[in-house]
Design goal:
The chain has helices spanning about 1-20, 25-55, 75-85, 95-115, 135-145, 160-200, 200-210, 215-260, 270-300; strands spanning about 60-65, 90-95, 125-130, 150-155. The protein is of the alpha+beta class and about 300 residues long.
């Protein structure tokens, strides 16, 4: 057990020394690993956050229609009575122009509202239809639009359904991006290890002459790749956190208007551990592949 531990500690020491023997090359490889790994990680985090947002939204379509600005109590009462006898209406909610203005003020435009001489907003109704079939929704929309008291009719929550579809597309895109960039990382790390082996060719030949086993020769290169993967993973986590911070700053005004308290979450420790674990697995595969093929070619 002591001999086995000493061999691994010795391999770790050699790998650590090699990391600083060529600092520019090592730094370049770590930067490449960090940058490449941060792209799918950041995309995955954004898609997951958007998926959480989409899950909080009501995907069921609703009709909103606005009365003419000149509409008074008589027109409002007439529309309410007409809604009670209209087919394909599960529920209807009246939103007065005073309530609409108060909602906009709470969204951060109170200073603008104070400068208005009168309330420019119309009275509105929000309708939840019984049937969400496209034909039924179109018929209901046309019917309400024909009423003389109504100015405009809009189909709400359609954007939420589009957002959900975008999330599904984003998940597939992230998977494809991860696959492509994962293959690119395998190539980068394998090529780095191959160059390290070529630089240590004389040392490897001497080790073989004195009876070093293939595992003894291979072990420092495996640890070298793992070290680069861990450092590159830490860099990737930092880049993702920086990207999320910038994204939150850029989208804060929009989020306040549409999503309330929503914000993009920073990478937590399970997310960071998953990045480093994936990079370590790729590094071990790349290093093992490069060492096996290069040593075999050198032995010919």
């Amino acid at each position: 057990m002591s001999a086995w531990l000493n061999q691994h500690l010795h391999a770790l020491q050699i790998a650590w020394q090699r990391l600083f023997t060529h600092p520019i090359g090592s730094l370049f490889t770590i930067l490449v690993i960090g940058l490449v790994a941060s792209l799918p990680a950041f995309a995955y985090l954004v898609v997951n956050n958007v998926a959480d947002l989409a899950g909080k939204l009501d995907p069921e379509p609703k009709l909103s229609f606005y009365l003419k600005t000149t509409a008074g109590e008589a027109e409002i009462t007439a529309v309410k009575e007409r809604l009670n006898t209209t087919a394909n209406i599960a529920s209807a909610r009246f939103v007065s122009k005073e309530a609409a203005l108060a909602e906009l003020e709470s969204a951060g435009i109170a200073d603008v509202a104070k400068t208005l001489e009168q309330n420019p907003l119309p009275h509105a109704f929000v309708i939840k239809p019984k049937s969400i079939e496209p034909a039924a929704l179109d018929d209901l929309k046309k019917q309400i639009a024909s009423w003389t008291e109504v100015e405009t009719v809009e189909l709400d929550s359609d954007w939420a359904r589009k957002l959900s579809a975008f999330v599904e597309f984003g998940k597939h895109a992230v998977f494809f991006l991860t696959l492509v960039l994962g293959l690119a990382l395998v190539f980068v790390m394998a090529n780095t290890i191959r160059l390290q082996i070529m630089n240590q060719r004389e040392e490897i030949d001497v080790s073989r002459l004195i009876g070093a086993t293939p595992s003894f020769i291979r072990r420092p290169f495996l640890y070298f790749g793992i070290m680069q993967a861990i450092l590159g993973g830490l860099l990737a986590i930092g880049l993702v956190a920086l990207g999320v911070y910038g994204l939150n700053q850029a989208t804060e005004p929009l989020v306040k208007l549409y999503a309330g308290e929503f914000s993009f979450r920073n990478p937590d420790w399970p997310f960071g551990a998953a990045i480093i674990f994936a990079l370590v697995v790729l590094a071990m595969f790349s290093a093992g592949l490069a060492v096996r093929r290069t040593l075999r070619a050198m032995a010919r």
